[in-house]
Predict the structure.
Amino acid sequence: MDFEDTELYRDITDAAHDTPAWVQHTVETWTEAGILLFVVLFATAWWRARHGTTKAFAIASLAPLATAVAYLCSEVLKSGFTEERPCRAVTDAASSLAACPPPGDWSFPSNHATIAGAAAVTLALVRRTALRLTAPLALLMAFSRVFVGVHYPHDVAAGLALGAVVAFAVVRLCSRPATRLAGAMRAPSAPAAARWFTGPGPRPTQVPSYDLRH
């Protein structure tokens, strides 16, 4: 593949070396730990959805699965394009802040960006307002991969798009059967473990009582 963003890669990695050490360390930490934050957000969405509608719970349960499918698609594409990492391929570029992945760990598309894009979209499908948090986090994750020198800009752009599209499609295709399954698991006759996992559903609405004697 031949993309014309090598100069942009050089500009970003050069700028990265000019930033204070604490900024470099923060981005290096975030580029890996950010995945764990998305895991925490998945767990939070699932826990809250236990008290939501059956459909909301089904989507919350599908979110990590859809993200995993997007990741697998990214891996398949990597094997097809076999693009070398810029930290080895780009001459005269600043050294990468993170360790350059070994040969055979291809560059296009970015797995981290794919996961971030998928997580951002699926969490927003669970709760629309979550996009205010997940979209910036996904963009920061994608940018960090270029900042530390292990991906080209086009790698992360493609990863974000791939993750978002695949995850959205998986949730759309699977939401109905997942909702039916969640409903069955919430039934009184379902095993206790299943009912605990899915949660009790929405709390009953309190109907105000009126004293009709007056």
